[in-house]
């Protein structure tokens, strides 16, 4: 016979295990199809119709399917990006700026700087191309200053990734190359350039671009820009992958914006789901039954009085 404790345990456990986490169910990954792209949308990204608390609440994480059937990522800086790939495990987003006007142009020219929300993303393996547009004459004899092969008044150079690229003009290259400011100062006195835009590219692409022939230069430049670049997103760093590996979903609590939140089938926890929340109900009952069964098979130590 089962002990009174075992019977009581069987009555007490079902209410506990039958609890469900409504937010966990609401935040299940959402299939997202847009043109040739198809992937699941989950933390930290969201789409129109996503439930609150399932993503990082910032417009910079908003994914939209455009009329041109490509996925667009909006940013607080009013610059949007075409999403090429999302790697949730590595937390890497591959994007290309939408403002680049080279898709149907002979000469690949950007129309503004590339900006992203620095509190949401970090660059990975990249360099920058700095474009100088509408120069008043041909620039000759300036090291590492390359003319766009499709336009005699536009030039570009490559900037090192380890320095600030958005504020000020003293951007450093490597030790053997001058700064952008020095490039401008080294131009012949009668030559000026009206615009200067900076576009990130993969570091592996830079050598191909610099060493290419003039005939192939425009093709190489266009391919490199179209390839896009990688960003590592910041929300969820250090805890979200562990939550997912434990069987949970990463979430967000507006009441405690600085706290981590792992949504599990039975409840929500700070960083990961405990083993009990992942255990199926039938498996747990079987476990309890076997414990009780084998416990009652143990020989008794009671001594019968009066027996010989």
UniProtKB/TrEMBL annotation:
Keyword vocabulary terms for this entry: Glycoprotein, Signal
Chief location category: membrane
UniProt subcellular location: Membrane
Coiled-coil stretches: none
Superkingdom per UniProt: Eukaryota
Cellular compartments per GO CC: membrane
Mode of membrane association: Single-pass membrane protein
Domain Wall-associated receptor kinase galacturonan-binding as annotated: residue spans: 27-96
GO molecular function: polysaccharide binding
Signal is among the record's keywords: yes
Domain Wall-associated receptor kinase C-terminal: residue ranges: 192-267
Residues in the signal sequence: 1-18
Transmembrane segments: none
Protein name (record): Uncharacterized protein
Organism of derivation: Acorus calamus (Sweet flag)
């Amino acid at each position: 016979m089962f002990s009174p404790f075992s019977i009581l345990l069987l009555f007490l456990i079902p209410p506990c295990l039958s609890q469900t986490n409504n937010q966990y169910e609401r935040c299940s990954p959402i299939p997202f199809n847009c043109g040739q792209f198809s992937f699941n949308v989950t933390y930290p990204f969201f789409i129109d119709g996503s439930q609150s608390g399932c993503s990082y609440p910032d417009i910079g994480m908003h994914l939209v399917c455009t009329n041109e059937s490509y996925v667009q990522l909006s940013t607080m800086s009013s610059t949007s990006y075409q999403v090429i790939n999302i790697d949730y495990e590595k937390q890497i987003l591959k994007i290309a700026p939408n403002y680049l006007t080279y898709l149907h142009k002979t000469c690949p020219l950007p129309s503004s700087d590339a900006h992203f929300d620095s509190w949401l993303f970090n660059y990975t393996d990249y360099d920058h191309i700095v474009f100088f547009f509408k120069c008043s004459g041909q620039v000759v004899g300036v090291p590492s200053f390359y003319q766009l092969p499709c336009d005699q008044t536009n030039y570009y150079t490559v900037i090192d990734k380890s320095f600030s690229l958005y504020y000020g003009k003293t951007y450093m290259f490597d030790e053997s190359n001058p700064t952008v400011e020095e490039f401008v100062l080294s131009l012949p006195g009668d030559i000026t350039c009206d615009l200067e835009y900076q576009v990130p590219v993969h570091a592996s692409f830079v050598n191909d671009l610099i060493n290419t022939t003039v005939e192939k230069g425009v093709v190489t430049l266009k391919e490199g820009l179209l390839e896009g670049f990688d960003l590592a997103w910041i929300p969820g760093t250090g805890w979200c992958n562990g939550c997912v590996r434990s069987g949970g979903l990463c979430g967000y609590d507006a009441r405690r914006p600085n706290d981590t939140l792992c949504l599990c089938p039975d409840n929500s926890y700070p960083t990961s789901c405990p083993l009990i929340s992942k255990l199926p109900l039938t498996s747990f009952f079987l476990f309890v039954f076997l414990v009780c069964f084998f416990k009652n098979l143990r020989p008794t130590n009671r001594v019968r009085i009066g027996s010989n």
